[in-house]
Amino acid sequence: MASDSDVTIPSKIKAWVYAERGNPVDVLKLVPDVGVPEIKEDQVLVKAVAAALNPVDFKRALGFFKHTDSLPPIVPGYDVAGVVVKVGDQAKKFKVGDEVYGDIIEKAVDHPKQHGTLAEYTAVEERLLALKPKNLSFVEAASLPLAIETAYEGLERAGFSPGKSILVLGGAGGVGSLVIQLAKEVFGASRVAATSSTGKLELLKSLGADLAIDYTKENFEDLPEKFDVVYDAVGQSERAVRAVKEGGSVVTIAGAATPPAVLFILTSNGSVLEKLNPFLESQKIKPVIDPKGTFPFSQAPEAFSYLQTGRVTGKVVIHPIA
Fold it and tell me: How many domains does the chain have?
């Protein structure tokens, strides 16, 4: 493998930046001469190949959590897949040339980094990264970290275990599509139900849902069947609590939580990715990327615009980054 000295790192790089909060489509600017982030001793520098967008990115830009956010100028982006080009003095896990992926922001809404992943290079603590599964492209790998970690840790938070049943609200979305697969393949669910619009019901079944509910035609909370766990990925906890069995758990990742539902906010952790890599490499769990969901770096604002429609299936990814 190459050593640090064999890799030429430019002094200035391209990055998408917003200097003030607002709709990303309006405030994002492509800046050609951003400084390369300095790495701390527990960090590595990653040359980004692909980066994914998440709803938290546009909510952050719009100022949803400005009281706990870093100050602009901000380079958005949580998810990255790329190649390690430099290693901090205390970083022992990776070497130059390793292909890695991860959610580079440890606490999603608590002082997230100013320099995110919509840049040619990004600095990240090595504990937030894992080696990229060999069978996945950089685009597929970039689509996963924040969503799969949120799916996994939310299921853990809900006390999900083999033999339990689950209802997933928003089963075709970035997180929901992975909750279905994890519940079935990793946690041993006895029954998985999920909601989506009419055109996405077949996708839910292909991901492992035993019952696909068309939310345009049925109210899930009115079904006679109740579930051990409801995973609310859309912000409908008031309705979700009416679909859970007595003594069951409701976890929500969007909006306010109606008790007994619990709002869950991710803390990023590369060890979760390491734990799930075998399931990705055996293709028991597959990334879901929207058919229109890969945008070149120059079209990041268009990617945000598409994400904000709320109609995305799976994930939106920026690739190539250059």
Answer: 2
